[in-house]
Amino acid sequence: MNRPTGNPAPHPMADKKETHKTIAGLFRSGSIRSKVWTCVLIALVGYFIATLSSFYSNSRQAARLNHLQKVEMPLALLSDQALQAYKDQIEKYENAFLTGEADQAVQGNRLSSRIIELFEEMSEIAKDASVFRQETDKISALMAQYNDFSSLAAEVYLSTQAIETSIALQKKVQQLGSMQTDILTDLRHLAQYFTDKVENELEEQRRNAQVNTLFLGVLFVVVLITAILISHGFASRQLIEPLARIQNMVRLFAKNAEVYRPPLGSDKDEINNLALSFWEMTQELKETMVSRDYVDSIIKNMSGSLMVLTPNLQLSKVNAKTASLLERSEDQLLGLRITELVCEEMRPLFQDKALAPLRKGEDVANLEICLLKKDGVQIPVLFSGSVMRNADNSINALICVANDITERKKTEQVLRKNEIERALAQTASLARIGELTSSIAHEMRNPLSSINMNIKTIQQELGDANPAFHELATIAQEQSRRLENMLNDLLNYGRPLTLQIRPTSFSALVEATFNAIARPRDEKKITIKVHDNLGDTLLEIDRELMIRALTNLVLNAIQWSPEESTIAIASRLSSTISAHDQAIIEVRDCGPGLDSSKSHRLFQPFMTSRPGGTGLGLANVRKIVEYHGGSVTGCNHAEGGALFTITIPITSPHLSPA
Known about the structure:
Layout: H1 12-29, H2 32-46, H3 48-99, H4 102-128, H5 133-157, H6 167-223, H7 225-254, H8 270-301, E1 305-309, E2 315-318, H9 320-326, H10 330-333, H11 347-359, E3 364-372, E4 378-389, E5 395-404, H12 406-462, H13 467-494, E6 501-505, H14 506-516, H15 518-523, E7 527-532, E8 538-542, H16 543-560, E9 566-573, E10 582-588, H17 617-627, E11 631-636, E12 642-649
Helix pairs in contact: 2-3, 2-7, 3-4, 3-6, 3-8, 4-5, 5-6, 6-7, 7-8, 12-13, 14-16, 16-17
């Protein structure tokens, strides 16, 4: 018996199973075209004409859906993206005007290439579709108009600093504003047109699907019940429900409700792809809206009080912090003029230092004023503001922020009270020291004077006959003078001061100081560089006392600096907002710097690291400066040497601790 060769013949039942699997697979993951072909083949068994009709209607519907996916839906998506990108570009240009940051204008210019690409894609898609001949012309015209706008914007927005002085640029800004509005309007109309087109087409296809289903049902009832059930099931599951799902997605999106992702399907399923494309578009738009809500949330929950004013200074928007701080509801605040919320005694200051600059388009930073609660209680705040402008550079709104500094003011009051108590205690201590030192000095001055006179007499009598004795006499004189200087320093430190205030320039202080330190400066060949940034600003000080303080600091710098080195003296106004009425004087040497272990006792009496020093020079400096309402500090400079800094009010309080 011969054995069979080749592949065994397939079993008939196996062929039927394979056929069922193939058909089931087509309905689960096949394209609309393949599903239509399957229905046609089934319908041919019953009625050839009905099958041809079914195939024709469904093929036409598949082609329309394909056209919708490849032309109308992309046009709607691209037009919406172009509209959003154009809005972002306008926002960045407006930010460039508000903040003056060129980076915002550069970012806005970069969006031009993206917007042009979107226009080109839209034009290419619409050009291939004959039904959009008129829209193609609109897109081309809009793209040409935008090219003119982007060219003009690139020129104008990168020259924001010159707009206020250039009439030509101002005219271009006005032209740019008109073009910007026209383009925005046309883009909105175009995006709305394509969106309406998609919605109408979806609605039409849904109606067509229902009609086709009914038509197929009637035909297949006449021909074959099985064909009717298969065709109706196909149309219901594969066409009507997905299209209804898409329509429902459009409806939910219009109501700003949550749009859920469509079920996963085959890549060949055109309706599923259409639904997925629409869902992706809604997610992109949602992200944009979330970003806007995020900014609103930040404003609502920011720790400072935010107030948006109209150009006529009325409150148009406030955050919750403002309402809480002023103990008023938002409705009670809206419409009020900002000056009504400022305490009466500070309104002239607020008008001059805040409102006047804001009207000129200038920013205001950290102006200390007091706002009024509903019950009239004053709240100290730091007020800041900036201007938001329209496209034509006119003022659109004033953005103001007020930070509550009540706790800081309380802390300052406590510190001020402690400082006064410390000053009073120090004054009492100085008075006691003054009494003691005056008594000691009186008892010691006469013997010291007698010793000096006797030594001079002996030197004159002996002359140079005995060099050794002459040297000892000279040493005795120097030590006697040192002791006398120590007594003078002690008297100066212990004696309460009475300030003789008069306006004095920094240059006059430096000139008098140079005269006092000329000899030790020349002996060590020291170079002193002066950097005067106070200019014509006059200091209300006791001239002689401040000369003594500055002289002590410069002498100290000379004594610690090596020969032929440089000492720097500088003056400037304080850069701290809360201390804008203070002057700063700095003296820097080229010495070894301060001993960190002793820096905390630097200005204490009798504290010295220099051989022969009295330890009262820096103590007297601090005393003089504090009598002027100022402070003095010492530290090591980053580049070497010691740096002493005097900070004093420009306007003297005319008070002394005594």
